[in-house]
Specification:
With 235 residues, the protein is α/β, with parallel strands linked by helices. It has six helices and twelve strands.
Length: 235
């Protein structure tokens, strides 16, 4: 798959001629994604991200770290934090920006170490793509969490896209297909997941997690903490 997002991040950081980054979808017109959003300073981050960073503890793995903005802030606060990113180009940018620990890998294949906090921001849990793959991820995350560890991530309910007429059959309505477009290049179509609170609560419980909603805004975006429910874990 072409690393379109990584190329846009790389061009922006190294001040190369830039092009607009577009996200094509299957529900409406293309949407522009400002690349500078991946380079936001703390003052420009929304409340959900502020709170998530304040709730981090212990050794941290930032999954899908992008350009490393969250990792750099956590480093400044003295945390032992590692950035995990599948894009080689984005990983290169993070190292150039001063991120001390960068792992370039697919989270579904990574199992080298355990952490107190697994962090996925900017709807990072969307990388799971589907409800089924979310369950696979939550099962895999158990191998990456230290005892008492936590998952912190945000998502949102996108029922509003359907104007009150949710599809009655077929895939879950929050399973969306996207495609990046940048400098006359297009990525392959890829799945991205937005999950409503009720559905997530059911899946979290099924997979052996307790779920706490830390913040919800007026746009149905919310931040959750998942912790393992030790009373239901098999010995």
């Amino acid at each position: 798959m072409k690393d379109i997002l990584g190329q846009a991040i790389h061009d922006h950081y190294y001040k190369k001629p830039e092009h607009k980054l577009w996200i094509n979808n299957q529900y409406g017109p293309p949407e522009e994604m400002p690349v500078e959003a991946y380079f936001r300073e703390e003052d420009d981050m929304p409340d959900i991200e502020w709170l998530a960073l304040n709730e981090c503890r212990g050794d941290i793995l930032d999954i899908g770290a992008g350009a490393g903005g969250h990792v750099l802030l956590l480093q400044e606060r003295g945390f032992d934090v590692t950035a995990l990113e599948i894009s080689n180009l984005a990983s290169e940018v993070m190292k150039a920006r001063g991120v001390q620990q960068v792992i370039t890998a697919d989270i579904f294949e990574y199992q080298e170490k355990q952490y107190d906090t697994l962090l996925l921001l900017m709807n990072g849990i969307g990388l799971t793509g589907t409800l089924l793959k979310l369950k696979t991820f939550l099962q895999h995350a158990k191998q990456l969490l230290k005892p008492g560890g936590q998952l912190l991530f945000d998502s949102s309910d996108i029922a509003y896209l359907y104007e009150g007429k949710l599809p009655g059959n077929g895939p879950y309505y929050g399973e969306i297909q996207y495609q990046y477009q940048y400098n006359q290049q297009k990525s392959d179509w890829f799945p991205w997941l937005y999950i409503d609170e009720q559905t997530l609560t059911g899946i979290a419980g099924e997979m052996g997690y307790d779920m706490e909603v830390l913040l919800e805004d007026e746009f149905k975006q919310y931040l959750v903490r998942l912790t393992l429910n030790l009373t239901v874990q098999k010995p």
